[in-house]
Design goal:
Elements (H helix, E strand, L loop, with lengths): L1 H26 L6 E6 L5 E7 L2 H6 L2 E8 L17 E4 L5 E4 L9 E11 L5 E3 L6 E4 L5 H12 L5 E3 L2 E6 L1 H10 L3 E2 L2 E2 L15 E5 L19 E6 H4 L4 E9 L7 E8 L3 H7 L4 E2 L7 E4 L9 E5 L3 E6 L3 E2 L4 E4 L30
Parallel strand pairs: 16-20
Antiparallel strand pairs: 1-2, 2-5, 3-4, 3-6, 6-7, 6-8, 9-19, 10-14, 11-21, 12-13, 13-20, 14-22, 15-16, 15-17, 18-19
Pfam families: PHYHIP_C (PF19281)
Protein name: Phytanoyl-CoA hydroxylase-interacting protein-like
InterPro entries: FN3_sf, Ig-like_fold, PHYHIP/PHYHIPL, PHYIP/PHIPL_C
Amino acid sequence: CTAIAEASNSAGSTSSCVMMRNMTEMDAPLSTPCNIQICEVTCDSFRIMWDMTPEDTARATHFFIDLSRKESRDPNRFKHRDVPTKLVAKAVPLPMAVRGHWFLSPRTEYCVAVQTAVRQPDGDYLVSEWSQVVEFCTGDYAMEHLQQLLDKAKGSAGRLLKFSVFYRNQHPSYFDNVRSECGGVMRPALKDSSGSHGSPINGKLHGVFFSCNTEFDTGLPPKDSPYGPLRFQIPAGHLLNPKISLYFADFYCMYTAYHYVVLVLAPVGSEGDTFCRTRLPMLDLASNPFLTYTAPQRPGEEPLYCHASEVILEVLFTDPVPLDQGGVELISGHHQLMSLTTANAKKDPSCKVCNISVGR
Protein backbone atom coordinates (compact mmCIF):
# COMPACT_ATOMS: atom_id res chain seq x y z
CA CYS A 1 0.00 0.00 0.00
CA THR A 2 2.84 2.33 0.85
CA ALA A 3 4.42 1.73 -2.54
CA ILE A 4 1.13 2.45 -4.29
CA ALA A 5 0.68 5.67 -2.32
CA GLU A 6 4.22 6.79 -3.09
CA ALA A 7 3.70 6.08 -6.78
CA SER A 8 0.44 7.99 -6.71
CA ASN A 9 2.05 10.98 -5.03
CA SER A 10 4.90 10.87 -7.53
CA ALA A 11 2.47 10.81 -10.49
CA GLY A 12 0.47 13.67 -9.05
CA SER A 13 3.60 15.70 -8.52
CA THR A 14 4.73 15.06 -12.10
CA SER A 15 1.29 16.00 -13.47
CA SER A 16 1.30 19.19 -11.46
CA CYS A 17 4.74 20.10 -12.75
CA VAL A 18 3.65 19.52 -16.36
CA MET A 19 0.53 21.66 -15.87
CA MET A 20 2.59 24.43 -14.28
CA ARG A 21 5.11 24.28 -17.12
CA ASN A 22 2.33 24.40 -19.75
CA MET A 23 0.70 27.35 -17.99
CA THR A 24 4.07 29.10 -17.87
CA GLU A 25 4.58 28.50 -21.58
CA MET A 26 1.10 29.79 -22.36
CA ASP A 27 1.74 32.95 -20.36
CA ALA A 28 5.25 33.51 -21.72
CA PRO A 29 5.46 36.66 -23.85
CA LEU A 30 5.28 36.27 -27.60
CA SER A 31 8.19 37.64 -29.57
CA THR A 32 7.59 40.64 -31.83
CA PRO A 33 7.07 39.65 -35.50
CA CYS A 34 10.00 40.84 -37.61
CA ASN A 35 11.20 40.91 -41.20
CA ILE A 36 7.75 41.65 -42.61
CA GLN A 37 7.56 40.80 -46.32
CA ILE A 38 4.82 41.68 -48.82
CA CYS A 39 4.62 39.73 -52.09
CA GLU A 40 2.26 38.83 -54.95
CA VAL A 41 0.60 42.25 -54.82
CA THR A 42 -2.39 42.81 -57.14
CA CYS A 43 -4.91 45.64 -57.40
CA ASP A 44 -7.01 44.14 -54.58
CA SER A 45 -4.90 41.57 -52.73
CA PHE A 46 -1.48 40.73 -51.35
CA ARG A 47 0.36 38.01 -49.46
CA ILE A 48 2.21 38.70 -46.22
CA MET A 49 4.78 36.80 -44.18
CA TRP A 50 7.13 37.46 -41.29
CA ASP A 51 9.65 35.70 -39.04
CA MET A 52 8.61 34.04 -35.76
CA THR A 53 10.47 31.83 -33.30
CA PRO A 54 9.72 28.09 -33.57
CA GLU A 55 8.05 28.28 -30.14
CA ASP A 56 5.73 31.08 -31.23
CA THR A 57 4.96 29.32 -34.50
CA ALA A 58 3.88 26.25 -32.56
CA ARG A 59 1.56 28.04 -30.14
CA ALA A 60 0.18 31.02 -32.09
CA THR A 61 -3.54 30.60 -32.70
CA HIS A 62 -4.34 33.91 -34.40
CA PHE A 63 -2.79 36.77 -36.35
CA PHE A 64 -3.92 40.40 -36.01
CA ILE A 65 -3.37 42.54 -39.11
CA ASP A 66 -3.71 46.32 -39.06
CA LEU A 67 -3.98 48.00 -42.46
CA SER A 68 -4.42 51.69 -43.25
CA ARG A 69 -3.87 54.03 -46.17
CA LYS A 70 -0.46 55.62 -46.09
CA GLU A 71 -1.80 59.17 -46.08
CA SER A 72 -3.63 58.57 -42.79
CA ARG A 73 -1.91 60.34 -39.89
CA ASP A 74 -3.63 58.09 -37.35
CA PRO A 75 -2.88 54.44 -38.12
CA ASN A 76 -5.56 53.43 -35.60
CA ARG A 77 -3.66 50.70 -33.79
CA PHE A 78 -5.57 48.49 -31.38
CA LYS A 79 -6.89 50.55 -28.47
CA HIS A 80 -7.02 47.48 -26.22
CA ARG A 81 -4.51 44.70 -26.66
CA ASP A 82 -7.11 42.01 -25.98
CA VAL A 83 -9.91 43.48 -28.14
CA PRO A 84 -8.90 43.29 -31.79
CA THR A 85 -10.44 46.01 -33.95
CA LYS A 86 -8.88 45.06 -37.28
CA LEU A 87 -8.63 41.78 -39.15
CA VAL A 88 -8.33 38.71 -36.91
CA ALA A 89 -7.24 35.64 -38.83
CA LYS A 90 -6.64 32.14 -37.57
CA ALA A 91 -2.97 31.25 -37.69
CA VAL A 92 -2.10 29.59 -40.99
CA PRO A 93 1.18 28.70 -42.67
CA LEU A 94 2.88 31.82 -44.04
CA PRO A 95 2.75 33.60 -46.44
CA MET A 96 -0.92 34.37 -45.84
CA ALA A 97 -3.19 35.73 -48.59
CA VAL A 98 -5.14 38.88 -47.71
CA ARG A 99 -7.98 40.01 -49.95
CA GLY A 100 -11.56 41.17 -49.72
CA HIS A 101 -11.40 42.28 -46.11
CA TRP A 102 -10.90 46.01 -46.70
CA PHE A 103 -11.97 46.35 -50.34
CA LEU A 104 -8.47 47.41 -51.32
CA SER A 105 -8.20 50.07 -54.00
CA PRO A 106 -5.84 49.78 -56.99
CA ARG A 107 -2.63 51.77 -57.11
CA THR A 108 -2.97 52.95 -53.51
CA GLU A 109 -0.24 53.14 -50.85
CA TYR A 110 -0.94 51.26 -47.62
CA CYS A 111 0.74 50.72 -44.24
CA VAL A 112 0.52 47.32 -42.56
CA ALA A 113 1.64 45.90 -39.20
CA VAL A 114 1.01 42.53 -37.54
CA GLN A 115 0.74 40.88 -34.14
CA THR A 116 0.76 37.21 -33.26
CA ALA A 117 -1.66 36.01 -30.61
CA VAL A 118 -2.64 33.03 -28.49
CA ARG A 119 -6.28 32.69 -27.57
CA GLN A 120 -6.55 31.65 -23.95
CA PRO A 121 -9.22 29.45 -22.29
CA ASP A 122 -11.08 32.48 -20.92
CA GLY A 123 -11.36 33.99 -24.41
CA ASP A 124 -8.74 36.70 -23.91
CA TYR A 125 -5.72 36.98 -26.19
CA LEU A 126 -2.08 36.92 -25.25
CA VAL A 127 -0.52 39.12 -27.95
CA SER A 128 2.93 40.11 -29.11
CA GLU A 129 4.09 43.67 -29.58
CA TRP A 130 3.24 45.25 -32.95
CA SER A 131 5.73 44.62 -35.70
CA GLN A 132 7.37 47.47 -37.54
CA VAL A 133 5.12 49.23 -40.05
CA VAL A 134 5.69 48.24 -43.68
CA GLU A 135 4.50 50.28 -46.65
CA PHE A 136 3.46 48.93 -50.04
CA CYS A 137 1.38 49.96 -53.04
CA THR A 138 -1.35 47.94 -54.72
CA GLY A 139 -1.17 47.32 -58.46
CA ASP A 140 -3.08 48.32 -61.59
CA TYR A 141 -6.07 46.50 -62.97
CA ALA A 142 -5.01 43.17 -64.44
CA MET A 143 -6.25 42.08 -67.85
CA GLU A 144 -9.13 40.14 -66.26
CA HIS A 145 -10.33 43.27 -64.46
CA LEU A 146 -10.16 45.37 -67.62
CA GLN A 147 -12.16 42.69 -69.38
CA GLN A 148 -14.87 43.10 -66.73
CA LEU A 149 -14.79 46.86 -67.32
CA LEU A 150 -14.93 46.32 -71.09
CA ASP A 151 -17.98 44.08 -70.73
CA LYS A 152 -19.74 46.84 -68.77
CA ALA A 153 -18.76 49.46 -71.36
CA LYS A 154 -20.22 47.39 -74.18
CA GLY A 155 -23.64 47.69 -72.58
CA SER A 156 -23.51 51.49 -72.77
CA ALA A 157 -22.03 52.03 -76.23
CA GLY A 158 -25.21 52.46 -78.28
CA ARG A 159 -25.42 52.18 -82.04
CA LEU A 160 -22.57 53.14 -84.37
CA LEU A 161 -22.56 56.47 -86.26
CA LYS A 162 -20.41 57.48 -89.21
CA PHE A 163 -17.63 60.05 -88.80
CA SER A 164 -14.82 61.35 -90.99
CA VAL A 165 -12.39 63.31 -88.80
CA PHE A 166 -10.66 63.14 -85.45
CA TYR A 167 -10.35 66.49 -83.71
CA ARG A 168 -8.54 68.13 -80.79
CA ASN A 169 -9.54 71.44 -79.21
CA GLN A 170 -7.06 73.67 -77.42
CA HIS A 171 -6.35 77.30 -76.64
CA PRO A 172 -4.26 79.42 -79.06
CA SER A 173 -1.23 79.24 -76.76
CA TYR A 174 -1.08 75.47 -77.19
CA PHE A 175 -0.89 75.63 -80.98
CA ASP A 176 1.52 78.57 -80.83
CA ASN A 177 3.83 76.45 -78.68
CA VAL A 178 3.52 73.46 -81.04
CA ARG A 179 4.61 75.64 -83.96
CA SER A 180 7.38 77.58 -82.23
CA GLU A 181 8.84 74.97 -79.83
CA CYS A 182 7.89 71.56 -81.26
CA GLY A 183 8.51 71.97 -84.97
CA GLY A 184 4.81 71.91 -85.79
CA VAL A 185 4.30 68.46 -84.23
CA MET A 186 1.91 67.62 -81.41
CA ARG A 187 4.03 65.47 -79.13
CA PRO A 188 2.64 62.74 -76.85
CA ALA A 189 2.12 63.80 -73.23
CA LEU A 190 1.84 61.60 -70.15
CA LYS A 191 -1.71 60.40 -69.45
CA ASP A 192 -3.10 62.03 -66.29
CA SER A 193 -4.88 60.25 -63.42
CA SER A 194 -8.45 60.81 -64.59
CA GLY A 195 -10.89 57.93 -64.81
CA SER A 196 -10.56 54.58 -63.07
CA HIS A 197 -7.80 54.62 -60.49
CA GLY A 198 -6.56 51.21 -61.62
CA SER A 199 -6.26 51.90 -65.36
CA PRO A 200 -2.75 50.78 -66.42
CA ILE A 201 -2.24 53.80 -68.71
CA ASN A 202 -2.67 56.45 -65.98
CA GLY A 203 0.64 58.19 -65.41
CA LYS A 204 2.47 55.62 -67.57
CA LEU A 205 1.50 55.94 -71.24
CA HIS A 206 2.22 58.97 -73.44
CA GLY A 207 -0.14 60.06 -76.17
CA VAL A 208 -2.13 62.82 -77.87
CA PHE A 209 -5.85 62.86 -77.05
CA PHE A 210 -8.46 63.21 -79.78
CA SER A 211 -12.24 63.13 -79.96
CA CYS A 212 -14.42 61.76 -82.75
CA ASN A 213 -17.99 62.06 -81.43
CA THR A 214 -20.42 63.80 -83.75
CA GLU A 215 -23.72 65.58 -83.30
CA PHE A 216 -26.65 63.29 -83.99
CA ASP A 217 -28.49 65.67 -86.28
CA THR A 218 -25.56 66.96 -88.38
CA GLY A 219 -23.04 64.11 -88.34
CA LEU A 220 -20.35 66.75 -87.68
CA PRO A 221 -18.19 67.45 -84.62
CA PRO A 222 -20.00 69.53 -81.97
CA LYS A 223 -19.69 73.32 -82.14
CA ASP A 224 -18.87 73.56 -78.44
CA SER A 225 -15.78 72.41 -76.56
CA PRO A 226 -14.59 72.63 -72.94
CA TYR A 227 -10.93 72.62 -74.01
CA GLY A 228 -10.53 75.78 -76.11
CA PRO A 229 -11.76 77.75 -79.14
CA LEU A 230 -9.31 76.34 -81.71
CA ARG A 231 -9.87 72.94 -83.25
CA PHE A 232 -7.36 70.76 -85.06
CA GLN A 233 -9.05 68.32 -87.43
CA ILE A 234 -7.36 65.41 -89.15
CA PRO A 235 -8.85 62.89 -91.61
CA ALA A 236 -9.86 59.74 -89.75
CA GLY A 237 -7.67 57.53 -91.93
CA HIS A 238 -4.47 59.11 -90.61
CA LEU A 239 -5.11 57.69 -87.14
CA LEU A 240 -7.39 54.72 -87.81
CA ASN A 241 -6.25 52.23 -90.45
CA PRO A 242 -5.02 48.62 -90.76
CA LYS A 243 -1.55 49.62 -89.53
CA ILE A 244 -2.97 50.70 -86.17
CA SER A 245 -3.68 48.58 -83.06
CA LEU A 246 -6.83 49.48 -81.09
CA TYR A 247 -7.07 48.91 -77.32
CA PHE A 248 -9.68 49.42 -74.62
CA ALA A 249 -8.28 51.32 -71.61
CA ASP A 250 -11.08 52.63 -69.38
CA PHE A 251 -14.79 53.21 -68.73
CA TYR A 252 -15.91 55.83 -66.22
CA CYS A 253 -18.23 58.68 -65.31
CA MET A 254 -17.90 61.79 -63.16
CA TYR A 255 -21.16 61.90 -61.21
CA THR A 256 -23.06 62.46 -64.45
CA ALA A 257 -25.50 60.50 -66.60
CA TYR A 258 -23.08 60.17 -69.51
CA HIS A 259 -20.04 57.90 -69.57
CA TYR A 260 -16.56 58.05 -71.06
CA VAL A 261 -14.71 55.26 -72.87
CA VAL A 262 -10.95 55.63 -73.24
CA LEU A 263 -9.40 53.93 -76.27
CA VAL A 264 -5.76 53.73 -77.34
CA LEU A 265 -4.62 53.86 -80.98
CA ALA A 266 -1.02 52.71 -81.38
CA PRO A 267 0.88 52.17 -84.64
CA VAL A 268 1.66 48.46 -84.97
CA GLY A 269 5.10 47.68 -83.53
CA SER A 270 5.50 51.10 -81.89
CA GLU A 271 6.54 51.67 -78.29
CA GLY A 272 2.92 52.40 -77.39
CA ASP A 273 1.79 49.17 -79.04
CA THR A 274 4.37 47.18 -77.06
CA PHE A 275 3.23 48.81 -73.80
CA CYS A 276 -0.45 48.09 -74.41
CA ARG A 277 -0.19 44.57 -75.80
CA THR A 278 0.28 42.90 -72.40
CA ARG A 279 -1.76 45.36 -70.35
CA LEU A 280 -4.95 46.21 -72.29
CA PRO A 281 -7.61 44.22 -74.14
CA MET A 282 -7.12 44.54 -77.90
CA LEU A 283 -10.17 45.30 -80.03
CA ASP A 284 -10.90 44.18 -83.57
CA LEU A 285 -10.75 47.25 -85.83
CA ALA A 286 -13.67 46.04 -87.95
CA SER A 287 -15.87 44.63 -85.19
CA ASN A 288 -16.20 46.31 -81.80
CA PRO A 289 -18.89 48.50 -80.17
CA PHE A 290 -16.82 51.71 -79.89
CA LEU A 291 -14.68 52.65 -82.88
CA THR A 292 -14.50 50.79 -86.19
CA TYR A 293 -12.66 50.84 -89.49
CA THR A 294 -14.28 49.03 -92.43
CA ALA A 295 -12.11 48.57 -95.50
CA PRO A 296 -13.50 49.51 -98.93
CA GLN A 297 -15.61 46.73 -100.38
CA ARG A 298 -15.09 47.70 -104.05
CA PRO A 299 -12.50 49.67 -106.03
CA GLY A 300 -13.00 53.42 -105.74
CA GLU A 301 -14.86 53.24 -102.43
CA GLU A 302 -13.68 55.01 -99.29
CA PRO A 303 -13.18 53.24 -95.94
CA LEU A 304 -16.03 53.56 -93.43
CA TYR A 305 -15.36 54.96 -89.96
CA CYS A 306 -17.89 54.69 -87.12
CA HIS A 307 -18.06 55.69 -83.44
CA ALA A 308 -20.35 54.70 -80.55
CA SER A 309 -23.29 57.04 -80.10
CA GLU A 310 -24.11 56.75 -76.39
CA VAL A 311 -20.69 57.28 -74.80
CA ILE A 312 -18.05 60.00 -75.07
CA LEU A 313 -14.93 58.56 -76.67
CA GLU A 314 -11.49 59.73 -75.59
CA VAL A 315 -8.96 58.43 -78.10
CA LEU A 316 -5.27 58.44 -77.15
CA PHE A 317 -2.90 58.26 -80.15
CA THR A 318 0.53 57.17 -78.95
CA ASP A 319 2.74 58.70 -81.69
CA PRO A 320 3.47 62.37 -82.55
CA VAL A 321 0.98 64.04 -84.91
CA PRO A 322 2.20 66.78 -87.32
CA LEU A 323 -0.12 69.77 -87.70
CA ASP A 324 0.36 69.67 -91.47
CA GLN A 325 -1.64 66.41 -91.61
CA GLY A 326 -4.76 68.43 -90.79
CA GLY A 327 -5.94 71.97 -90.20
CA VAL A 328 -6.64 74.35 -87.31
CA GLU A 329 -9.75 76.52 -87.28
CA LEU A 330 -11.84 78.58 -84.87
CA ILE A 331 -15.00 76.83 -83.67
CA SER A 332 -18.26 78.75 -83.76
CA GLY A 333 -19.75 77.64 -80.43
CA HIS A 334 -18.84 78.11 -76.79
CA HIS A 335 -15.63 76.83 -75.28
CA GLN A 336 -16.10 77.44 -71.56
CA LEU A 337 -17.99 74.25 -70.66
CA MET A 338 -15.46 73.43 -67.99
CA SER A 339 -17.80 70.96 -66.25
CA LEU A 340 -17.15 68.56 -69.13
CA THR A 341 -13.36 68.59 -68.91
CA THR A 342 -11.76 65.42 -67.60
CA ALA A 343 -8.27 66.50 -66.51
CA ASN A 344 -7.50 64.44 -63.37
CA ALA A 345 -11.24 63.90 -62.90
CA LYS A 346 -12.19 61.30 -60.32
CA LYS A 347 -14.45 58.43 -61.16
CA ASP A 348 -17.79 58.16 -59.35
CA PRO A 349 -17.22 55.20 -56.99
CA SER A 350 -20.95 54.69 -56.43
CA CYS A 351 -21.97 54.26 -60.08
CA LYS A 352 -23.28 50.75 -60.71
CA VAL A 353 -22.86 51.14 -64.48
CA CYS A 354 -19.10 51.66 -64.69
CA ASN A 355 -17.59 50.14 -61.53
CA ILE A 356 -16.30 46.64 -60.97
CA SER A 357 -15.85 44.82 -57.67
CA VAL A 358 -12.08 45.19 -57.30
CA GLY A 359 -11.90 48.89 -56.45
CA ARG A 360 -12.40 52.31 -57.94
